[in-house]
Amino acid sequence: MTRTEAAHILWPMKVASRPIPAADGKAFALERFTPFRLSVLANRMTRSVARIYMQRYKLSAPDWRTLAVLGRFGAMSANSVVERTAMDKVRVSRSVSRLLLLGFITRRTDPEDRRRAILDLTPAGLGVYRQIVPRALAVEEELLAVLTEEERTALEATLTKLENRVTATVAEE
Question: How far is residue 31's CA from residue 22's CA, in Å, rounded to a whole number?
């Protein structure tokens, strides 16, 4: 079996007319399941923006997210990067190691809590951040160009509501 044949088995382009029901007997259409749709959309949008920082700067998506959070919010601990990006600790740790090697960030001991390290952009990291941001915003603008102003406003409000709901749900757990 070729890779293409295997891919079509795992994710056929044609949606089955009768999805297999869940244990409760209800049909489950994965392609209509909001968390799945948002994840796929986010991955595809990330790839569109990734072309900017991967080609020229050889950064991965986690590298860029870490750099972007430090550029936007300033110096912080790796745990704060984890919280702001929702990336797992291992991914942030690898990103921090790469960005340190590239000379884009520094790591220093927190004077108030010597067990904690503080990450910050170097001048080179700040320069990369400042070069990528306008290009990333241009890609975002291109992707959102299919929406009217009213749709953009509604999307922003909807995303904010969903983010608040998920944050509240996680806090309850």
Answer: 15
